[in-house]
């Protein structure tokens, strides 16, 4: 069951998929349409899942699931990952590689491999105050409060020593 993302409770489970590049306008429209269709039919053991999504900065797909009525099962999570894999293939994107870092480089959003980010930290090209996207957030509340944070306040901090 498709819900408005902003109406989901703060304890809703969140999945953040970051793209290796910015979506085009046509890609954003396609992602919005197909994600809405997927979430309308997303179920766990036959129970409809109340879920919503948003596209942030034409680079992130954020899916939220209200677990008050029904929680995602292994099969339903597999179905959502399969859906994301289909988007990757159709649009030639990388949405599932967790070994990449997305951060603000001035007013722009940059995307680097973890290895490159580590080297940039060592060379002081990024600082503890560089705003990073912490895609390990688990709930909507964490997403709203701790998704865009200084590197020193996220798991990225380990590379700044």
Enumerate how many helices there are, as a single number.
Answer: 4
For the largest sheet, list the strands in their spatial order: 1-5-4
Let me know the average pLDDT: 92
**In angstroms, what is the radius of gyration?**
16 Å
Which overall shape is indicated by the principal axes computed on the Cα atoms?
A: globular
Number of domains: 2
* Number of DSSP E strands: 9
Low-confidence stretches: none
Structural class: alpha+beta
Structural features, described:
A hairpin with a 2-residue loop joins strand 2 (about 45) and strand 3 (about 45-50). The model has no long low-confidence stretch (mean pLDDT about 90). It contains four helices and nine strands. The relative contact order is 0.18. It has helices at about 25-40, 75-90, 115-120, 140-145, and strands at about 15-20, 45, 45-50, 50-55, 60-65, 100-105, 110-115, 130-135, 150. The chain folds into two domains: about 5-90; about 100-160, no CATH class. By secondary structure, the protein is an alpha+beta fold. The longest helix has 18 residues, at about 75-90. Helix content is about 30%, strand content about 25%.
């Amino acid at each position: 069951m498709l819900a408005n993302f902003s109406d989901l409770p703060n304890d809703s489970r969140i999945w953040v998929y970051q793209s290796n590049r910015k979506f085009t306008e046509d890609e954003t429209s396609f992602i919005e349409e197909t994600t809405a269709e997927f979430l309308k039919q997303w179920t766990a053991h036959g129970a409809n899942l109340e879920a919503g999504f948003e596209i942030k900065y034409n680079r992130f797909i954020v899916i939220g699931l209200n677990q008050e009525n029904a929680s995602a099962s292994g099969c339903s999570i597999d179905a959502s990952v399969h859906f994301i894999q289909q988007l990757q293939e159709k649009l030639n994107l990388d949405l599932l590689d967790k070994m990449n870092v997305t951060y603000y480089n001035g007013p722009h959003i940059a995307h680097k491999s973890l290895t490159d980010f580590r080297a940039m930290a060592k060379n002081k090209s990024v600082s503890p105050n560089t705003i990073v996207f912490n895609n390990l957030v688990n709930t909507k509340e964490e997403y709203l409060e701790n998704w865009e944070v200084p590197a020193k306040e996220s798991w990225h901090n380990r590379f700044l020593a």
